From TrEMBL:
Family per similarity comment: Belongs to the LTA synthase family.
Species of provenance: Planococcus maritimus
Domain of life: Bacteria
GO cellular component: plasma membrane
This protein's name: LTA synthase family protein
Amino acid sequence: MKTIDYWVYLAFSAFKLFLFSLYTDTPFSFGFFLISLSSALLLSSWTLLIDARKRRWILLSLLALHSTLLISDVWYYRYFGDLLSVQLIPSMTQMNDVGGGFMSLIRWTDFLFFADFLLFLLFIFALKKSQTVPAQKTNGKLAAVIATVGLLLFSAPLFMSIAKGERWLAGDATSNMREYYELGFWGYHGYDFGKGVVSIFRDPMPSEQDKALLLKAAADISTINKGEQPNIILVQLESLQTSVIGQEIGGEEVTPYLNTLKEEMLYFPSFHHQTHEGRTSDAEFAINSSLHPLRTGSVYTRFPDNTFAPLPEALRDSGYDTAAMHAYEASFWNRNTVYEHIGFSRFFSKKDYPETEKIGMAINDEDFFTTSIEHMEKLKEPYFSFMVALSSHIPYEIPEDKKQLALPGYENELVRNYYHTVHYVDGAVEVLVEELKQRDMWDDSIVIFYGDHDSGLTEAGREMANKLDANGVTEQFELARQVPLWIKPPELAQGETIETVGGQIDVAPTILELAGVDQGFMLGTSLLSDTERMVVFRDGSFRKGDVYFQPDLTTVPGTGECYSIESGEQIDGSACEPYIDEALDQLRISDTVIEDNALEYIQ
């Protein structure tokens, strides 16, 4: 059979797609197989026009390319729950933000993706004695047939979707995974590449429908200006998830001091991070802008100069001295550009901190906090100080003498080090609070602590989830999405636990309400209001009250499963249905503001 090499290539390609779905625990339906096969046929049919001996080496190269992209997508998916995109290119220089933590994503079985390369190589050598077969007319006909079949298989479901009026690629895709399920592996990456090229030349302009959504959202915003203007201290704690608060391992509290803060601050146990691929930068952006992160990449690297109505700018315009503090390189995640653009008058970075003991990426949090207080004392009152701590950053590297927990029963070194670093940060926060109290900077200030995102170690079936019995849908959601939040308004007499459900986009409106400053265009609502807010996540999932909606990304927007947080059981979809479009609209409005620079249409 003169084209056996081609059919072997297709078989290997199809098997690798199944392997990808197996490794990522994503659906592999017959329809998805056909759409993925169709793009493989379209991309490879031309090789049948080439001399057989040369074709085999081309097919071998295509297998290697396919495997490289697949294994990269697997590793990326394990950390971000999404696929690689060309629009991530501006963020690639920042990927050491994850650092050695990527090693935790790699499993030896992943390299089975390259097994076909070796098998196909042996296959080539087995056929090397065969005669060179020049390209023949029959191969040309076969190539045309295969390309036609591929085109029909690829386009038929798309035309059917359009005929049904289904919205997939018409601006409502909340996740790259939705495009992946509709277009297949190669179809997704091809479409993504095309979007990346178009974005370079595209003139940002919101559609009339998007303008209407934007104007309606702006009309719903209410502002309160009391003119009180206390000092504000906002502290972002790296990778701090709610599960560690109150947790004991072997009789030892992981966060003994943070546990006690519930007695003198307002504590929000049902608070959620809304980050996506930008992780820490997404948290900063959501907190300071009250907008959602992008579905691909980070606002900090993709749209650093676009116009928002951010918290620092609102405070600065009201007379605040605004300062950001982060003891790492000023250019990392483009912070030196973004911080100035969103209203920070000063940025204290690595050069402004002493070269003391490092824990992880930068100087230890204790020295970072005490030096930051010294910087704060030089600010003009009222001031807004935004501190980004780093000691508990993945890959959770911490000196042996700082490991104070026994952690019996835990074997995964990365998980053990996570708990060690969180325990260390707990002590550093105690030092910060005591210093603020001693310097009379605590009582009359607004002080806020929050976790930026989860540890990245919460995957179902792994050690952390197993130990916390968090392998069900709602338990996994809470473990991966809940981060702690503490707020101390000025002169708070006693702490309180507030069960209201909220997310990171609600923090800026809360601060502005407490400070008595007017709010600009923000999608969140104050956590101190009586509003029952909906917390929306980048993939279209959301929580409202006791209800959690998990979208089905393999089909059109609006479909999915509805769960009760309290019982953990799936419930009738009617409990979620009234809010699905509202959640999608919220993401769409945020994207319009960011990507189309659309605030000029309502200002």
